[in-house]
Amino acid sequence: MYGKAFAPEYRGSLGDLSVNASLEEVLAKATEQLRRAERGGSDLESAHAGLAVAEASRRLGRVAEAERAWKGSYRAARRVGDLGAMAWAVWSGGTLSRQRGDLALARRWLATAAELAERGGDIVARGYSLAGLAETGRIQGDYQAVGELHEKLLAEARKRGEARHTVWALEGIAQMHRNTGSYDTALAMFEEAAGIAGRADDARGRAWALRGIADVRSARGETEPALALLSEAEATCREMRLVSALAYNHKMRGNVYFRAGRYAEARDAYAGALEEFLAMAEPRGAALARLGLVKSRARLGRAPEETAADLDELHRTLGGIGLLHARDMVDKARAELGLAPVGAAAAR
């Protein structure tokens, strides 16, 4: 049985903030609390408030502010020797590094966070840090290495009745099944995640799950139901100001249009998502949106040599980030579009 979802990253005097609070509301309250804590000389409360500032800023795409805030949170926690608070701050830094496309740094920070949490006896911080490591490996396409960790974290979350973490783990495992062609398993897990999130009042988790369901249904040719699911999820993203989730929602809308052969609509959706990703300095999302944009323009009659050159560049970009699965998508796009292997355009 799962309890109501909660946000463990909102700590101390901010612990009563709802998991569904809008990010602007969280940022405003956390910023004010940080000022009060600093004036009052409370380092631990400064660490808690700084963490909330960091996470709200990160999710709003304000990466410079997020960077300053998590480091400030860590310094405050270190001054009082609170290992748990230190772990949460470093977890935030690792998550930010992954969002910015520095996956090697993300792994280092998240491993450090897990170690700090272990020493400090903060089970939840340890779980979130290990989850971050698992997600980093998953988005790189290293499914074999992180699949077991995902399953272990799912079992731990189920045992504790922790709805939000269970939803996260289900969605991660479902995404791996979807990417390897196990659509039935992926759909069942995305639907279970959506159900748990709905009952636990986890609007963010449910929005991500709906996106996953839409993806699988679109891949099966169910275009209109997929678009309806994305519209429902988009409403949540807008209400909570989930900037990153909204951009990924728009990129998925492009995917749905593309699969349905609606290439002009796909082009426009990808172009909009690309602008959103660039605005928040999220290179992974930007590269994936750019790939969809290149494919859509190719289907709309763009010159093959221009398409090939763009795909060459994307292959290098994705390889530099370390996104092995996404780089394979570029190779697949070349085959679909009847283009020469990677590097041919540059060689010419």
Automatic annotation (TrEMBL):
Keyword field: Coiled coil
Coiled coil stretches, renumbered: 20-47
Superkingdom, taxonomy of origin: Bacteria
InterPro entries to which the protein is assigned, alphabetical: TPR-like_helical_dom_sf
Flavoprotein recorded as keyword: no
Protein name: Tetratricopeptide (TPR) repeat protein
Organism (species): Streptomyces eurocidicus (Streptoverticillium eurocidicus)
